[in-house]
């Protein structure tokens, strides 16, 4: 009996031991990730968050390629022959996007992810070392401004289609989200309001950014994005001035040959190497073997060169588009089908703004503003000649039609055709330039999640 | 050594000599079917003083004069104790199959089935073993009422969905909690791909003694916080005192796909593709893209002929249909073999008992390139140290090697080859190599990457080493009072290695080889410590437990991926010039629990039970970590009452009712926290990005369950049955709620919404014939109605097919309604189904799917699930016929937009039904006009939805057991030969490969009933032998 008694004591103790060892038993902290409250405490933390914002901006769904690629598909008539089975892009090429199109949803989501990243940086800007503060803030605002401009021109009616101050653009969010509450359900701002937000961000960015900044956004990157934005608005003097600031910065030069402006294709069957920015990249999304993704290559590249080989270029279109002697007609390769050589490197950077665009923006704006003296003191003919001579062509006149046509030749498949068609009010095939089918739907998923959003007409 | 042996023999001889002076007992052991050889006969209390019956059942044993009782024990029979009254004892043993007096395993203990007040489904080893399955869930399918089990596809060792009484959650886990011999084991998916595997496949089904599924709150609430989805208790085989019984089982079989799907032949393919070119030419002309129709037709014709020429290996053989490849048939292996060998030893004495089991399993899958091997061993050992202390270990180790396939959505998945053209030869005549292989046309020939290139040029091997070990002690403190303690470690080590050779470049996007090496390491430690007490005072019986448990599980994971190898002879990542991915991750969770249960029985007829568990989990915010989960139950055994006790008809009648609260914590380990991740590197520089939005209020998902049921036995239990009604109300759903993406996040985990499962379950067992010809029937049937009652106005619809939406069952198909084809122009049309202010539905049609409202088009969850098992035996033959089925669910063929797309979505080969396409004005058909790449009718709609009900002859087994007269001659205690067929016959209206399907890459709680090039279940015909020594 005594033995049992002792046992009882021992066992009771064991039991209590098990009970009491528990205070810490439930404290299991994450080791892969860190808690939000510990993430943005030092200058280094905020600079790291800025790098993160670039990585989200460069998502394949956004500036990594797809937000540009989808627009070229929508504007395509006879250049691209689509052999892919991604239904999202089949819808784009057929100009009948569904509101459930996941590529469209991804553009929206990635854009706002980059914006939230930038908002985190801007909200924590006081943590940044004084010497770096302007640069960091400028880069964050460049990212945010560029993202808003991209989103509004995809999801809102064109600036020149009716009243920009009445047409709905996209929601504007300017502070980081750390918790979801009532204020997280934002309505769409007007097209004009979003353009104004982008202008404010990009103007502030241009003021704060340094002239050179490795492959990150520079003063000129912000000016170049402003030039593109003003051109889209039809504000030609502001566009020409901004383009002129980029050209005269002297930090960028057109490459010797047209193909040199794009990442070098590897030899057939050899591994692709990550490319550096070319001398004319004013801003490009960086791709390495480990980070970034070339979303153009995914569809335009043949499978020998890392792509799916889904978007084939029509030889008829090439023959009809490029005149004899135009070096740009050589920017294609034959891999059983014809593919554009611009995106033949799986790990090549994604060009976002090339210097050639600035010459053509200045040329077009000055041509439109004539007979006023050309901004920058360079005539449209001179600018057009600069771009064309690189392609091995001579130039006699610089009419507006010439310049607009030059944009087609120069920027084919780089995401210009839809936005150019809209601002120049050029119909796409039988589809009017302001057709509702050429505006992205607000993703159904987003409408479902946020009752304050209004769907675009036609969806 | 020899000397030692000799002295041992002498010693043993001395022992037997010591007993030699006593009396000699002789007798015979029989059963209803004749004498039983090999029965262990021993004196109660002195197991060493024993013998065995011989081939004729006779035994002879010398016992001491004071021996009072003999014990007769034999596997498969109830142990019998017989008092020694004279010199001769003849004993008749009863077979161990009377379900009513069975002991069932419940949480932290066992109960007589008669005393169970909750709802527990119990399946014994005889219904699980010797089947050619990989994982035990497959053997359980259809055998436990209310437990719905469905495989995602026919790939080996891959995900199997188990739902106990319906899905109790929307976005948190819905799989039951798995407890093996008292410990919560690591279950779930550790696959690095989107196709899930199952950690449960590491358990050898033939080691399992019984599976109990705890279904209602009173049975499961003892596992409180994780019991909402039901609890599956697996009990492995234990040692038995007596002669060591050696059993050897072997099974060998051949598999084939249970069904084929028909695709177009060369002539049909050429016809429909040409027609598609004409169809789209006409559209372009109508759109004004061409000046004349002829020009459009010419353009398209040139384009189509060029493509056909290309896919015909660059020649014009397609014009004569010379090549007619059947890619579907080629995707399946020729007579894949399944082999399974088991060797088990069961034995021991009064003090020490053991079970040793070993198995080698080698299965070849039906799909080319798929195979699974598993080697496993088990040792269950107990020892009585003293009269009050028992200790033991359970140890299970296994090694499995799964040669896996790509997920259903990959071009490299063999069944995706059905998209390739029948005009494409398997071997490219230009190169003599498999079509699509370099050197030669490879970048755009055939239509897609040819998955057969992967067969010899790629592999994906998952190797698992699993050890589950438990040490335990039971201490009898006082009469009826016991303290049990155990400590266990479940260690899962998995390595997934793959290499994709240079010839697979079109699939991998890299020209010089691609390799992956992924390691997963899970260590799951658990300890249970509890007191149990039972006593009887007069007519009252008490049974109480009180205890605590703690579990911590840590998962570590690392991935390396590299590309650019010197040649395909190098497959390890050290040889990769470029490392593409190198990551490591770690996550952990812990549960700390306290539990209490009391059962009270009065006068053998009134039963009351109460239990409560307090659970804390690291997964929730510090303020809301603990949850309390009480449950109560009552039962009345009416047949014990005087007015029924004498009844000849009714042998058992028991009424049960229970109500209780359980919880669910199956969410991510850190779902409550706002997090940043260091995965924002850009341009070679490190960066961080927000990765999760915080929800500090996150807490348990709760399920309140009511269960009312009764058990009955009629005609001396010749007919027994069990019936249950239940209602499960889940609230505070752990929901990944879509939030506006303008926040920078897409979802947040929060407690929002509720859902309800209501249903009925029926289980009936009958002994239709007893005697020489035996026939028994077991029926299980269940009805479950799942309905989401509140999701806070959200619609979860990530795949644009299934939805979770208030008022509808989870996963309801939410798609536009297909209205067929406009006979005038061949356009696919859809019902608008828009509702005006007065509630009138617009049933006019549109050819723009965007203008068609989505409708609730069907339920992916079966309403009815059932199983029907008939077993017959006559003389030495036994026959088992087991049917299983579901009814009331639908299946969406998500591959339809490619394979049944009236050639309007590229050059994919089409299913044969597409030949009834619209051809000219006035044609009435449901297949729209083929229009090359125009997507005419391919949007998600009810066009691709069909009924998913089926009845399947799951198992058909015919066996022959050799009679004792033969066994005596060959000195065996048992010899049975049998043939068994799995999935021999499936009756269904579904036109796809198999109605038991849910494409692996997209499966979630919501995304159910979706077919996407998913392999069917195998039909396995096998022969087996059971040998007992």
Strand percent estimate of chain A: 5-15%
Q: Given the helix and strand composition of chain B, which structural class is it?
A: mainly beta
Number-wise, the strands of chain B total: 56
Q: State Rg of chain B.
A: 32 Å
Any low-confidence stretches of chain B, pLDDT <50, length ≥5?
1-20
Structural write-up:
The complex is a heterodimer of chains A (459) and B (1029). Chain A has 459 residues and is mostly helical. Chain A folds into two domains: 153 residues, Serine Threonine Protein Phosphatase 5, Tetratricopeptide repeat (Alpha Horseshoe); 180 residues, Serine Threonine Protein Phosphatase 5, Tetratricopeptide repeat (Alpha Horseshoe). Chain A has 16 helices and seven strands. In chain A, the strands form three sheets. Chain A has a two-stranded antiparallel sheet with strand order 2-4. In chain A, strands 3-7 form a two-stranded antiparallel ribbon. In chain A, strands 5-6 form a two-stranded antiparallel sheet. Among the domains of chain B are: 91 residues, Carboxypeptidase-like, regulatory domain (Immunoglobulin-like); 117 residues, no CATH class. The N terminus of chain B is likely disordered. By secondary structure, chain B is mainly beta. In chain B, α4 runs antiparallel to α5. Chain B contains eleven helices and 56 strands. Chain B has a 22-stranded antiparallel barrel. A five-stranded mixed beta sheet of chain B has the order 11-16-17-14-15. Chain B starts with a helix and ends with a strand. At the A-B interface, α1, β1, α2, α4 and α5 of A face β25, β27, β28, β29 and β33 of B.
Task: Provide a short characterization of the protein structure.
The complex is a heterodimer of chains A (459) and B (1029). Chain A has helices at residues 2-20, 43-57, 66-74, 87-93, 102-123, 130-155, 191-208, 219-233, 236-248, 295-300, 315-321, 355-369, 380-390, 400-411, 417-423, 444-449, and strands at 33-35, 80-82, 281-285, 311-313, 332-335, 337-340, 350-354. Chain A is mostly helical and 459 residues long.
């Amino acid at each position: 009996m005594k033995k049992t008694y002792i046992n009882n004591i021992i066992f009771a103790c064991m039991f209590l031991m098990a009970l009491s060892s528990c205070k810490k038993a439930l404290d299991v902290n994450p080791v892969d990730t860190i808690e939000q409250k510990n993430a943005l405490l030092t200058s280094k933390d905020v600079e790291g968050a800025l790098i993160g914002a670039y990585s989200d901006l460069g998502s394949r769904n956004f500036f990594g390629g797809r937000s540009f690629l989808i627009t070229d598909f929508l504007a395509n008539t006879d250049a691209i022959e689509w052999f892919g089975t991604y239904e999202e892009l089949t819808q784009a090429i057929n100009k009948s996007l569904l509101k459930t199109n996941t590529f469209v949803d991804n553009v929206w989501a990635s854009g706002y992810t980059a914006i939230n990243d930038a908002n985190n940086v801007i909200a924590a800007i006081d943590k940044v070392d004084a010497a770096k503060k302007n640069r960091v803030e400028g880069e964050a605002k460049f990212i945010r401004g560029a993202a808003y401009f991209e989103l509004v021109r995809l999801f809102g009616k064109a600036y020149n289609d009716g009243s920009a101050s009445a047409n709905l653009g996209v929601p504007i969010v300017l502070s980081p989200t750390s918790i979801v509450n009532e204020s997280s359900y934002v309505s769409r701002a007007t097209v004009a309001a979003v353009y104004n937000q982008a202008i404010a961000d990009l103007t502030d960015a241009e003021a704060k950014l340094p002239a050179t900044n490795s492959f990150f956004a520079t003063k000129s990157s912000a000016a170049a994005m402003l030039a593109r934005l003003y051109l889209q608005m039809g504000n030609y003097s502001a566009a020409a001035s901004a383009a002129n600031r980029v050209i005269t910065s002297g930090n960028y030069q057109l490459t010797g040959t047209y193909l040199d402006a794009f990442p070098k294709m590897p030899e057939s069957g050899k591994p692709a190497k990550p490319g550096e920015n070319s001398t004319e990249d004013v801003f490009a999304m960086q791709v390495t073997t480990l980070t970034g993704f070339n979303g153009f290559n995914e569809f335009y590249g043949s499978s020998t060169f890392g792509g799916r080989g889904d978007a084939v270029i029509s030889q008829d279109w090439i023959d009809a588009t490029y005149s004899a002697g135009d070096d740009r007609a050589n920017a294609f390769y034959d891999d059983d089908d014809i593919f554009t050589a611009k995106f033949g490197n799986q790990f090549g950077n994604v060009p976002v703004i090339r210097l050639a665009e600035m010459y053509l923006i200045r040329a077009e704006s000055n041509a439109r503003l004539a007979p006023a003296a050309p901004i920058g003191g360079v005539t449209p003919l001179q600018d057009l000649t600069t771009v064309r001579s690189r392609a091995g062509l001579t130039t006699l006149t610089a009419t507006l039609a010439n310049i607009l046509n030059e944009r087609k030749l120069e920027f084919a498949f780089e995401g210009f055709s839809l936005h150019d068609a809209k601002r120049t009010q050029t119909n796409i095939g039988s589809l009017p330039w302001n057709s509702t089918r050429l505006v992205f739907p607000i993703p159904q998923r987003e409408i479902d999640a946020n009752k304050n959003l209004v769907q675009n007409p036609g969806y | 050594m020899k000397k030692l042996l000799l002295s041992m023999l002498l010693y043993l001889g001395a022992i037997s000599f010591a007993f030699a002076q006593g009396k000699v007992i002789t007798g015979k052991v029989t059963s209803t079917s004749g004498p039983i050889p090999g029965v262990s006969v021993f004196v109660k209390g002195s197991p060493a003083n024993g013998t065995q019956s011989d081939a004729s059942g006779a035994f002879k044993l010398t016992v001491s004069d004071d021996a009072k009782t003999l014990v007769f024990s034999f596997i498969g029979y109830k142990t019998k104790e017989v008092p020694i009254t004279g010199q001769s004892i003849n004993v008749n043993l009863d077979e161990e199959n009377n379900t009513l007096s069975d002991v069932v395993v419940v949480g932290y203990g066992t109960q007589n089935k008669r005393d169970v007040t909750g709802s527990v489904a119990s399946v014994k080893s005889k219904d699980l073993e010797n089947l050619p399955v990989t994982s035990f869930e497959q053997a359980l399918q259809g055998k436990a009422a209310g437990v719905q089990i469905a495989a995602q596809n026919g790939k080996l060792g891959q995900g199997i969905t188990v739902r106990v009484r319906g899905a109790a959650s929307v976005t948190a886990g819905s799989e039951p909690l798995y407890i093996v011999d008292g410990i919560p084991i690591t279950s779930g998916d550790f696959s690095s791909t989107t196709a899930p595997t199952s950690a449960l496949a590491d358990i050898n089904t033939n080691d399992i003694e019984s599976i109990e599924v705890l279904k209602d709150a009173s049975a499961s609430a003892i596992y409180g916080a994780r019991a909402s989805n039901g609890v599956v208790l697996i009990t492995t085989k234990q040692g038995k005192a007596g002669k060591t019984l050696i059993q050897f089982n072997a099974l060998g079989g051949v598999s084939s796909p249970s069904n084929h799907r028909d695709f177009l032949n060369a002539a049909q393919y050429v016809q429909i593709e040409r027609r598609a070119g004409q169809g789209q030419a006409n559209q372009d002309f109508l759109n004004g893209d061409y000046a004349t129709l002829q020009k459009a037709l010419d353009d398209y014709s040139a384009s189509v002929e060029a493509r056909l020429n290309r896919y015909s290996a660059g020649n014009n053989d397609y014009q004569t249909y010379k090549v007619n490849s059947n890619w579907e048939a080629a995707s399946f292996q020729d007579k894949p073999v399944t082999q399974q060998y088991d060797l088990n030893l069961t034995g021991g004495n009064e003090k020490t008992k053991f079970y040793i089991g070993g198995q080698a399993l080698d299965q070849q899958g039906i799909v080319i390139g798929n195979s699974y091997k598993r080697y496993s061993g088990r040792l269950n050992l107990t020892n009585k140290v003293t009269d009050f202390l028992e200790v033991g270990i359970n140890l299970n180790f296994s090694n499995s090697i799964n040669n896996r396939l790509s997920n259903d959505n990959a071009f490299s998945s063999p069944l995706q080859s059905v998209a390739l053209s029948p005009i494409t030869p398997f071997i490219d005549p230009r190169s003599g190599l498999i079509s699509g292989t370099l050197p030669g046309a490879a970048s755009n020939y055939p239509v897609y990457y040819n998955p057969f290139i992967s067969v010899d040029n790629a592999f994906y091997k998952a190797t698992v080493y699993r050890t589950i070990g438990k040490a335990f002690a039971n201490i009898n403190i006082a009469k009826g009072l016991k303290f049990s303690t155990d400590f266990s470690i479940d260690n899962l080590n998995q390595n997934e290695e793959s290499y994709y050779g240079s010839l697979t470049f079109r699939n991998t996007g890299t020209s010089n080889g691609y390799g992956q090496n992924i390691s997963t390491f899970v260590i799951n430690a658990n300890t249970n410590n509890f007191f149990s007490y039972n006593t009887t005072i007069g007519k009252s019986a008490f049974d109480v437990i009180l205890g605590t448990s703690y579990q911590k599980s840590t998962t570590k994971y690392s991935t390396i991926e590299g590309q650019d190898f010197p040649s395909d002879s190098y497959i390890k990542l050290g040889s990769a010039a470029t490392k593409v991915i190198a990551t490591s991750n770690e996550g952990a969770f812990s549960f700390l629990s306290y539990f209490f249960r009391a059962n009270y029985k009065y006068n053998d007829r009134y039963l009351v039970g109460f239990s409560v568990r307090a659970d804390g989990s690291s997964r929730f915010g510090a303020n809301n970590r603990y949850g309390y989960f009480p449950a109560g139950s009552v039962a009345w055994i009416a047949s014990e009452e005087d007015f029924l006790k004498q009844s000849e008809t009714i042998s058992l009648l028991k009424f049960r009712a229970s109500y209780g609260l359980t919880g669910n914590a199956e969410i991510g380990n850190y779902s409550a926290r706002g997090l940043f991740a260091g995965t924002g590197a850009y341009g070679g520089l490190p960066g961080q990005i927000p990765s999760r939005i915080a929800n500090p209020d996150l807490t348990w998902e709760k399920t309140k369950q009511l269960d009312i049921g009764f058990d009955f036995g009629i005609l001396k239990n010749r007919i027994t049955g069990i019936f249950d009604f239940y209602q499960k109300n889940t609230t505070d759903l752990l929901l990944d709620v879509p939030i506006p993406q303008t926040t920078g996040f897409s979802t947040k985990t929060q407690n929002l919404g509720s859902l309800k499962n209501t249903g009925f379950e029926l289980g009936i067992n009958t002994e239709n014939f007893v005697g020489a010809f035996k026939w028994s029937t077991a029926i299980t049937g269940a009805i479950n109605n799942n309905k989401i009652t509140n999701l806070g106005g959200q619609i979860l619809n990530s795949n644009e097919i299934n939805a979770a939406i208030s008022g509808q069952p989870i996963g309801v198909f939410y798609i536009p309604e297909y209205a067929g084809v406009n006979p005038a122009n061949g356009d696919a049309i859809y019902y608008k189904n828009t509702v005006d202010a007065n509630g009138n539905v617009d049933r006019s049609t549109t050819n723009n799917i965007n203008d068609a409202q989505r409708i609730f088009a069907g339920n992916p969850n079966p309403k009815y699930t059932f199983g029907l098992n008939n077993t017959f035996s006559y003389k030495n033959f036994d026959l088992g016929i087991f049917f299983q089925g579901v009814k009331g669910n639908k299946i969406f063929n998500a591959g339809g937009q490619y394979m049944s797309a009236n050639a309007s979505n590229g050059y994919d080969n089409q299913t044969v039904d597409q030949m009834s396409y619209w051809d000219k004005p006035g044609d009435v058909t449901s297949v729209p006009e083929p229009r090359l790449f125009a997507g005419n009718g391919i949007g998600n709609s009810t066009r691709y939805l069909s009924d998913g009900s089926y009845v399947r002859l799951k198992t058909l087994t015919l066996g022959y057991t050799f009679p004792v007269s033969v066994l005596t001659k060959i000195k065996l205690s048992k010899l049975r030969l049998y043939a068994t067929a799995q999935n021999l016959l499936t009756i269904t209206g579904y036109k796809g490969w198999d109605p038991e399907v849910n494409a692996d890459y997209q499966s979630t709680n919501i995304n159910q009933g979706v077919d996407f090039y998913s392999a069917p279940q195998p039909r396995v015909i096998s022969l087996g032998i059971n040998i007992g020594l």
